[in-house]
Amino acid sequence: MAPLKLDILIVGAGMAGLASACALASDGHRVRLLEAAPELSNMGGAIRLPPNAVKVLMDWGLHGKLQGQSSIILTTTFCDLRTGEVIKHTEWQSDVFKDSGGEFHMIGHRDLCQMLYAHALFVGVNISFNSKVVAIIPPSESTPTSSLVTPRNVRPNAGPSVRLSTGETLHADLIIGADGSNSILRPIVDRRTSQIYTGTTMYTGIVDAESVENNPRMKDIVELGYRIWMGERCYAMAPRVQNTKEYAFHLAQIEDLPENEHGASSGWRVVPSTNVRRDGLNTQLQFFLDSAPTLTRARCFEHPSVEDWVDPSRGFVLIGQAAHPMLPCAMHQSSDCLESASVLSTLLSHLRKPSQLSSLLYAYEDLRASRAPQLSSFELLNRSWLSLPGALGVARNEDMRAAAVKSYSARPWAENANGDGDNDGDDGGQDLAKHWAEIAWLWGYDAGEDAEDWWIKWGVLRERATLEENPDGNGGTCRLHGYRAERGHGFLSIPVSRV
Ligand SMILES: Cc1cc2nc3c(=O)[nH]c(=O)nc-3n(C[C@H](O)[C@H](O)[C@H](O)COP(=O)(O)OP(=O)(O)OC[C@H]3O[C@@H](n4cnc5c(N)ncnc54)[C@H](O)[C@@H]3O)c2cc1C
């Protein structure tokens, strides 16, 4: 529980907004969540929850609910996208998950959002649908007292506010922009908003497991489990979700969609599956497409990293896609939302007086600004590795076959690259080992622990220093500038992960 409770407005009830609402309200902050849509998204598609994301849900007491809604991934089978040939089957050893402290789940996007929504209500979040924010108003001396909750703790008479499309104005101590990649808050906090279309489109859909199990052509999918198909500049995957009652699948294709075809502001749109080009897809993938009448589609954009995630003097914070847009259906999209929510709430749980707020928000920025690019660069590398063209793809497949023959270990960070004890990469296993090791390193991260570490190493120190300088405990905002100046000399060098 945070000793000093804030009035917090969160813009956007996607995964990042719901996750931060759950975490902050659990710590006693008064949270109101504003969503433009009339209800939670009900689009069919699935999302991966790697161990680092699952650990956050476990911390919030949601592990049981997660198990009822998702499926655990214990194996991965890599296949050729065109022919369907199995290239390598990996069984993840239980040690992998023991070491990382979590599990690897796959869940329907709507199921995860529903789960977080129910939890947000349970911990007392006030959620308003049909509440589109049309303007962000920075704090000023003339701002009237909050209509949300009074009195505001941090900036009496000077908090930031938002205006809704209805004309209503809401005030708070802190406003969190969780409003996706076209965030209304982002240009205020960080002006760089450019994006580059990668030329790839992502489709995701859900298929009833019974229809898969009853089809002889799908027999080995049922037997071998989670499957990834690797093709030339495209790839696909199909894990089970909904406690194995459904299959989800993702398909990434090169596709030159016209500008006006990229959907609503979120970029996600429901389309008939007959829209998808099928040439070059093996028969199992075609079966998935035939079995899902509609798919959820998003065009893939690359965005530059934001430099500024927070504007403490005005009380603004960015989270999720608004802060750090990632490619659609990325493995670590969920990680980014859940980890950020956990880091932010853990830091703010130490808030005892208003003067601390700035340094805690800058700590959030520092921790996330170093972690989030690691998550997206992994995704970019992973995607290019799964969709290598021509001779590169052939060489990758040969490496994987060779590694499969040598019973390549699925615990590579504990053993040598090629499993034969010499780690010389003579079977091409070294690149693969590096790839797996990076996965393991990312999975081992613990967001809550990272934020607590910051508090112990730097937060407490700063507290003591401020107290010595100012024994009445009323540190001024001038400390904030000192903190910013120090960022390059210590704060950014905090190790973010202990794997
Ligand atoms: C409809 C939808 C379906 C998706 N399906 C999948 C999927 O199947 N698989 C997958 O891997 N990922 C999916 N995603 C993406 C995934 O949820 C996100 O990319 C990622 O998890 C980060 O979420 P976010 O909360 O930061 O942003 P988003 O998920 O984009 O959520 C932003 C939210 O803010 C709301 N919003 C935007 N502007 C305003 C405003 N001015 N005022 C109030 N509210 C506003 C939006 O309506 C939206 O609900 C989907 C996203 C959406 C929006």
Automatic annotation (TrEMBL):
SUPFAM superfamilies on file: FAD/NAD(P)-binding domain
Stored Pfam families: FAD_binding_3
InterPro entries xref list: FAD-bd, FAD-dep_Monooxygenase_BioMet, FAD/NAD-bd_sf
UniProt keyword annotations, A-Z: FAD, Flavoprotein, Monooxygenase, Oxidoreductase, Signal
Domain FAD-binding: 6-261
Keyword Hydrolase: no
Signal peptide boundaries: 1-21
GO MF term list: FAD binding; monooxygenase activity
Family: Belongs to the paxM FAD-dependent monooxygenase family.
Name assigned to this protein: FAD-binding domain-containing protein
Organism: Bondarzewia mesenterica
Organism taxonomic ancestry: Eukaryota, Fungi, Dikarya, Basidiomycota, Agaricomycotina
